Backbone:
């Protein structure tokens, strides 16, 4: 009994917030983007893996004796409040930032966190795409090249494994999905998978065709991840409610497959975009998935452009 008591005491002391009688399972700060107040909040998922939300892609986090490993970093104006939120749950340095892909709502904090000593890691194509200006045709926008200070320092082609905080964190590339630089992150011991933007939870996704994405690649990427999951797997989507599961990801995947198949039939029949849009090919899915960032009209246009190339 005495040994147990000593160990329990040590565990409490080792965790500064717990020793003050506070919970360590949530964290919260706030920041500003322009005039908009953004709440940064985090919750413990399992073992030492957290998810943090603010504005932009959902952030995954592994904390522990080896330091902080962070998946994506949202927008630059939120970097300081994000750092503060993480400081509430770990006094260890942020050692690694892993970018799931190159979009600004996932890499916007790279420069700040690199300046704080983090090593930025991503697929080869993330660095290549960030190094040049980017066209977002669907939104009629152009994004300038990133500065050298924001670029990943370590890049990889197929897969890369981190051995940190008692877990094996396997990261692997899936081809031509949301972009051509996507990675999925698998915390093997914690049984948690961060999907990046291959998964928009409860909403139509953006498929960035101009940056090498494709709906068939999204489906294939989802299938690859689903094969690694069981009923206890916690799934972190790139966007949407940050805690999901295998069943919901399967529904998302089936929605993509249903729309792609229906669109392909229209394209095979030689229909123009106008004709396809008039036939409302996404109507069966719109009520559940079409009320957010990507409208039914944009979804139709995007998938038509993709599959008619
Ligand atoms: Zn994205």
Residues:
């Amino acid at each position: 009994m005495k040994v147990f008591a000593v160990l329990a005491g040590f565990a409490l002391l080792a965790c500064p917030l717990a020793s003050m009688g506070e919970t360590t399972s949530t964290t919260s700060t706030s920041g500003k983007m322009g005039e908009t107040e953004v709440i940064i909040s985090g919750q413990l998922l399992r073992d030492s893996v957290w998810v943090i939300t603010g504005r932009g892609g959902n952030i995954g986090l592994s904390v522990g004796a080896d330091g902080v490993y962070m998946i994506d970093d949202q927008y630059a104006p939120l970097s300081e409040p994000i750092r503060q939120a993480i400081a509430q749950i770990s006094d260890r340095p942020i050692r690694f930032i892993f970018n799931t892909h190159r979009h600004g709502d996932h890499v916007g904090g790279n420069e700040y966190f690199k300046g704080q000593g983090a090593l930025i890691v991503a697929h080869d194509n993330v660095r290549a795409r960030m190094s040049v200006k980017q066209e977002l045709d669907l939104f009629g926008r152009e994004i300038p090249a990133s500065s050298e200070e924001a670029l990943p320092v370590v890049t990889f082609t197929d897969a890369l494994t981190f051995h940190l905080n008692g877990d094996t964190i396997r990261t692997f590339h899936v081809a031509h999905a949301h972009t051509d630089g996507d990675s999925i992150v698998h915390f093997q011991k914690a049984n948690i998978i961060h999907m990046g933007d291959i998964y928009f939870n409860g909403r139509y996704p953006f498929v960035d065709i101009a940056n090498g994405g494709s709906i068939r690649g999204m489906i294939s990427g989802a299938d690859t991840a689903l094969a690694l999951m069981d009923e206890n797997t916690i799934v972190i989507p790139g966007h949407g409610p940050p805690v999901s599961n295998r069943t919901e990801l399967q529904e998302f995947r089936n929605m993509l497959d249903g729309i792609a198949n229906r669109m392909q039939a229209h394209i095979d029949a030689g229909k123009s975009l106008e004709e396809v849009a008039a036939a409302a090919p996404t109507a069966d899915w719109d009520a559940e998935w079409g009320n957010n960032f990507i409208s039914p009209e944009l979804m139709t246009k995007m998938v038509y452009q993709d599959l008619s190339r």
